[in-house]
């Protein structure tokens, strides 16, 4: 992205148009870049709203089997605020991340992908106790209460959690 | 530089070209590794993966300066970038260097393992040749030289899985395969399978119980998809011994932990294992000791601080001492922690930090020159470092 901006500066108006076009394509096609500090930004953007963060990876076989079920859940439950994070130990090709999500019916979900080689730091920011195993689902309630579902998620539990979020608190 | 250009101009050998379907595209993951070996004259050899190629550099001053990189892979390749994969190097008593590495054949993590060697003190390497004729998948290849000078290589091989699936039978994981070379790595014997149904995505650890007697530690698949560690010690070059379970951690997982173990054998024959687990019986990084090959391992001792991501253990026996390192992360810096034992692993020094870094890093490795042990560590910020353990070199 930075390189595109520099190119635009170097080549003037025409270059700028091309760079903007490229950037727009990129925002449609590519996941958001998850690097140092991204977790705090993500939490802030969803603060006060019940949010389900699903950590998955292209290098994780069970994740790829599970993803279409999340696609079905997203379709069935418009109240599901779903955030997907591709959390592979090494940054993956952005186009493959997007293509995999699109195939699973998750092409429109908010999607991030680890792009920072400092894997330890990214994991620590999300959860110091997380050893990096995937898949992993983090349920963040309106009041910020976090519950973790390690491994392939029991979607009945996720539905029950969504139902509980919808109930007015007494 | 001229030599590099010359090599790049050479034609791609047919063996690699055939296996190389997909060329690395934008954003393709890249390995970041450096693996050391000392030659008989005290030269440090390093095999490095740099993007899509494997190169070797040498240092005659303990890592302060290095020779220009010599390519092992003249053409760019889709190298296996798995978090536990790395090119390996072994240098024999005559200074012949043998390198092994793997590429990805496809997007399903099927690998192809190759070997190459240098008989001219690292000035050039032979064209890489496949370690085995079977083309199904090989990964996590490792190479080591036994006390008699024979070259042993072991890897995780998927041929039996493919055959089983064709016959409609389930086959979890991969097989532990091996081969020997009696001519300093020029050719390797036909492949033998030591054991079926190992975990398919974790590095192997190799140590020798004696000439012709490698011991291999690996993440095994026990009944119920439990991926705990085991050691197989060979009785002779052609006879893998029984499987010894290192620990019952009960990590039931149908996935890839990408986190393999390490093994050392002390001069008294005792075996020493370090590993990572996230089992229901225990979670974290552990060490255990067995009195001899085939003997049961003692109780696992936890390593490091549980909330600091202790990871990537490495054990090495050198002279009278056993050395153990691993990584820890405090939220800010990754530290390499070190412990040493001079009583065959019965007691250990308090853990101390020997190096740290504030960005991405390779696994910490240990390498010995005579009885002197060094930490070998590649980090993004500092580059490559060789650090003498236990005081100045």
Supply the key terms.
A: 170 residues, alpha/beta, Glutaredoxin, 2 domains, 6 helices, B: 393 residues, mainly beta, four-stranded antiparallel sheet, 3 helices, disordered N terminus
Count of helical regions of chain B = 3
Cα-to-Cα separation, first versus last residue of chain A: 48 Å
Please indicate the percent range of residues of chain A in DSSP E strands (runs of 2 or more): 15-25%
Helix content of chain A: 40-55%
**Spatial strand order of the main sheet of chain A:** 1-4-3-2-5-6
Strand order of the main beta sheet of chain B, please? Answer: 1-2-3-4
Q: How many distinct beta strands of chain A?
A: 6
Looking at the overall shape, the CATH architecture of the largest domain in chain A is 3-Layer(aba) Sandwich
Structural class of the secondary structure composition of chain A? alpha/beta
Range of helix content of chain B: under 10%
> What is the count of structural domains of chain A?
2
CATH topology of the largest domain in chain A: Glutaredoxin
Our estimate of the beta-strand percent of chain B is 35-45%
Gyration radius of chain B (Cα, Å) is: 20 Å
Q: Tell me the radius of gyration of chain A.
A: 17 Å
Largest interface: A-B, 28 and 33 residues
Shape assignment of chain B: globular
Instruction: Please provide the ordered H/E string of secondary-structure elements of chain A.
Output: HEHEHEHEHEEH
């Amino acid at each position: 992205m930075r390189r595109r901006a520099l190119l635009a500066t170097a080549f003037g108006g025409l270059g700028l148009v091309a760079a903007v076009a490229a950037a727009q394509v990129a925002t449609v096609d590519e996941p958001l870049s998850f690097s140092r500090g991204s977790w705090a930004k993500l939490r802030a953007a969803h603060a006060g709203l019940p949010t389900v963060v699903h950590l998955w990876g292209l290098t994780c076989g069970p994740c790829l089997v599970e993803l279409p079920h999340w696609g079905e859940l997203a379709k069935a439950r418009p109240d599901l605020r779903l955030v997907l994070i591709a959390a592979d130990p090494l940054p993956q090709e952005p186009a493959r991340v997007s293509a995999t999500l699109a195939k699973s019916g998750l092409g429109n979900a908010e999607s991030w992908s680890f792009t920072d080689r400092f894997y330890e730091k990214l994991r620590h920011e999300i959860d110091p106790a997380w050893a990096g195993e995937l898949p992993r689902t983090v349920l963040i309630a309106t009041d910020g209460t976090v519950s973790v579902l390690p491994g392939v998620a029991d979607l009945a539990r996720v539905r029950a959690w969504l139902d509980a979020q919808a109930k007015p608190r007494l | 530089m001229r030599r590099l250009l010359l090599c790049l101009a050479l034609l791609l050998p047919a063996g690699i070209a055939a296996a190389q379907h997909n060329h690395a595209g934008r954003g393709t993951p890249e390995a970041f590794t450096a693996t050391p070996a000392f030659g008989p004259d005290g030269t440090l050899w390093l095999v490095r993966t740099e993007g899509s190629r494997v190169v070797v550099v040498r240092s005659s001053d303990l890592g302060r300066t290095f020779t220009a990189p010599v390519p092992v892979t003249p053409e760019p390749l889709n190298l296996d970038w798995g978090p536990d994969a790395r090119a390996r190097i072994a240098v024999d008593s005559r200074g012949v260097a043998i390198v092994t590495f793997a590429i990805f054949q496809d997007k399903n993590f099927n690998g192809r393992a190759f070997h190459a060697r240098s008989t001219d003190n690292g000035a050039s390497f032979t064209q890489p040749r496949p370690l085995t004729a079977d083309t199904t998948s090989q990964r996590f290849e490792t190479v080591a030289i036994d006390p008699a000078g024979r070259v042993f290589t072991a890897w995780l091989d998927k041929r039996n899985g493919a055959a089983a699936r064709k016959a409609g039978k389930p086959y979890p994981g991969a097989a532990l395969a091996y081969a020997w070379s009696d001519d300093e790595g020029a050719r390797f014997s036909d492949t033998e399978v030591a054991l079926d149904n190992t975990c398919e995505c974790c590095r192997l650890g190799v140590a020798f119980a004696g000439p012709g007697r490698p011991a291999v530690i690996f993440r095994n698949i026990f009944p119920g998809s439990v991926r705990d560690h085991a050691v197989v010690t060979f009785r002779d070059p052609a006879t893998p011994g029984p499987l010894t379970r290192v620990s019952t951690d009960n990590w039931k997982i149908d996935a890839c932990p990408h986190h393999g173990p390490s093994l050392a054998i002390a001069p008294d024959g005792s075996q020493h294992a370090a590993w990572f687990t996230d089992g229901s019986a225990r979670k974290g990084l552990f060490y255990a000791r067995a009195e001899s090959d085939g003997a049961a391992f003692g109780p696992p001792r936890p390593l490091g601080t549980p909330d600091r991501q202790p990871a990537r253990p490495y054990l090495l026996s050198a002279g009278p001492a056993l050395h153990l390192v691993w990584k820890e992360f405090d939220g800010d810096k990754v530290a390499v922690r070190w412990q040493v034992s001079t009583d065959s692993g019965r007691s250990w020094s308090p853990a101390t930090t020997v190096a740290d870094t504030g960005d991405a890093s390779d696994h910490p490795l240990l390498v010995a020159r005579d009885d002197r042990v060094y930490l070998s560590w590649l980090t993004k910020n500092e580059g490559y470092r060789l650090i003498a353990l236990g005081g100045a070199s």
